[in-house]
Amino acid sequence: MKLTEQQLSELAAELDQVKAGVMSQLGDKEARYIRRMLMTQRLSAISGRIFMVLGFITPWLWVLGVALLALAKILDNMEIGHNVLHGQYDWMNDPVLHSQRFEWDIACDAGSWKRTHNFEHHTYTNIIGKDRDFGYGLLRLSNDFRWRLRNLWQFVTYLLLSTLFQWGVSYHELAGERVFFGKKKPDRINSVSHTDLKKAFFGKGARQLFKDYVFFPLIAGPMWLWVLAGNLLANIIRNLWTSTVIFCGHFTADVHTFTQEQCEGESRGHWYYRQILGSSNFTGPRWFHILTGHLSCQIEHHLFPDMPALHYLTVAPQVQAIAKKYGIAYNSGSFLRQYATVVARIIRYSFPGGKVTTA
Amino acid sequence: MNKTISLCGQSLYRQFSLMLANQPKLGYYLHPLLNWHKPALHPDYHSARIVDFCWETDQMLSVWLEPASSWAGFTAGQHLLVTMLHQGRYISRSFSISSSSVVFARQKQIRISCRIQSQGEFTKALAAGIAELTHLSISDAMGDFVLEPKSDAALEQSIVMVAAGSGITPLWSMLSSLRCWTSPVVLFYCVKNAAQAAFLAELKLLAAKQPLFELQLIETETCGRLNLVQQLKAKAGFSLNNALYYLCGPAAMSRQYKEDLIQQGVPSTAIHAELFGLALTAAEGPLKQALFMQQGKVTTVEAAAGVTLLQAAEHRGLNPRFGCRIGVCYQCVCQKKSGQVLNLRTGQISGDGPEQIQLCISAAHSNLQIEL
Question: Taking Cα atoms as reference points, which of A105, A312, A23, A102 lies closest to residue B89?
């Protein structure tokens, strides 16, 4: 099942070709798509906030408002924010859609996200000890990690993390840099000072809290409590959704992990190989893919993080065929099946032992 | 005091906008909504309606624009950045305004005149799309290539203009905006042949009407290059030192004439030059110069062909943001203000205008200006 360097470089060439096929065609279609997405997001955000206040007419309007705001937050987070921050639309040269300037509607500062996610997670995907996204330093998801007592209740930890997911994401870099607690790891090169990290964390967090729990309730007058509760609910819905999608992309049953030795000085082909084995897809209707920000095609996303996400579905069959040709497992299944294996994995590794998943 | 208040206000507005919309200004948030029917509008610039267009020569396209009321106007000779949406992406190029400021005052319209270049992405796209386009985006007018206001003592000073090819555009704008003629103006207009000379009929009309204006058409195809100093010395009653010079054309030409004039003792303050024409001038030799600007500090970096700009900058002691260094993570994206880069992963050569580039996979293809 191990591929030779020759095979790996052929694999890289084939995948590069798939990518080039899409990237050379980028133009009006993609631009129209993402602009329509922005418009939908703006419309549902604004109308959602208005409908919530109209809840005094009938509570159903409040429910509609919460749903619309949650939709707006999900689109902003997934199909727009996550993808734009990957630089998928940088070629459009549009300041509203540029990775360097984009900021999103979650607690995490975009700069911090780009360091921990775009750089750390996407470069070192599933390398134990390098990719802190594998378990987020909270969950034990394979026997590559020593069992500790706190793993016993890690399913509860998982539920809490999902509910507060945006704050987990926001705190992620500060946890890695040991800004508040713990001893700094010697091998971490930090490009940003602790002061700047704290400033970004508290600044962005405060703005988000102020908006949803002070500003909008305040201008809602007598409806303030409804608006406050609605905003809280919309944020929680978005948190649960993004967390679930992301867990289904990396922590399903058959996802592989890697050791640092395996990946030292790796070739581009090995990087591709690792991305396929370290990710998993799930299936569903078109609207469902959009709500996941096309992270339902996590494998394609990890192979081509800067390809506009709407193309993941079209290149998926080609990628699957290439994976099959080289005998690389292509992990895909229905959403429910994949999610069930995630839950099983979290519970299994709550207890000592289990499989070592390094390939 | 007022300045402090306005700065405070701006910073408050920025904070408010960041809080409410996660954007430095609310316009960015609302732009996709408000301009859904006009996707070509760039949120940083002013909208300009295309009123009309015509071909001045077979290679020069003139477009009449009606800028939105937010646009502040211009002084004859200035240029602006024109942005259009081409295949989903914003591309920009700078053009001198070729119409009179009098027309703008009266009709609120300006004209840009573009020489269509076969290698130029922007001009080619503009020529191909002009029939369907309804709007362009334009920046504020900028540049100091304008007629110097003369003091009373210098009213006698004559004006010498040299235009090469499309370099006529800002000079024609100056001439047609001039209301008060106090001294002689001579224009040397260098073109391949008369058929390539834009605004020739208008220039001839002006020469016939205005005794102080003299037009010298130099057809380089038949009579070769203009020898400026020689021509000026041959002019009766003309003193090289008592004149103001306005040169507009390709960089090499402007540089040459400027050197010649300075050699004749003309003070360099009397010479105004606008570099023009083909901007795709790759520097000679394999070494290119990249000017990195970081919070006002400019560092010159020697960039060899095939070496990434990130490496070159780091070698020079700069520390641009970086991440994966293989073109994946987009940590090192920054704004190129001018010049062309070669994408080492795709082999593509970029356009010449302002755009965002990934430092870690870009090499210099011409001299560059980059903002970190």
Answer: A23
Residue B334 contacts A, CB cutoff 8 Å:
yes
How far is the C-alpha of B47 from the C-alpha of B169, rounded, in Å?
A: 22
CA atoms within 13 A on the CB side of A216: 26
Do residue B338 and residue B247 come from a single domain?
Answer: no
Boundaries of domain holding B250: 156-276
Q: What is the pTM (predicted TM-score) of this model?
A: 0.86
Residue A127 pLDDT level (bands cut at 50, 70, 90): very high
Measure A251 CA to nearest chain B CA, in Å: 22
Q: Give backbone dihedrals phi and psi of B58, rounded to 5 degrees, phi first.
A: -70, -10
With respect to residue B129, please indicate whether it lies within any of the assigned structural domains: yes
Amino acid at B150: K
Which of A49, A77, A93 best tests the B interface by mutation, with the highest count of B CBs <10 A?
A93
Which pairing describes strands B46-55 and B89-96: parallel, antiparallel, or unpaired?
Answer: unpaired
The arithmetic mean of pLDDT across residues B117-128, rounded, is: 85
Q: In the block, which residue shows the tokens 């009579």?
A: B223
B294 and B269 share one domain: no
Backbone angles phi, psi at B290, to 5 degrees: -115, 125
Of B20, B22, B89, the CB nearest to A31: B89
ipTM of the prediction: 0.89
Strands (E) across B220-303 are located at 243-250, 271-276, 288-294, 297-303
B182-201: pLDDT as tens digits: 889 999 999 999 999 999 99
Q: pLDDT digit string (tens) for A273-286? A: 999 999 999 999 99
Residue B197 and residue B203: Cα distance in Å, rounded? 10
In this structure, the answer to whether residues B259 and B361 fall within a common structural domain is no
A92 vs B: CB within 8 A: yes
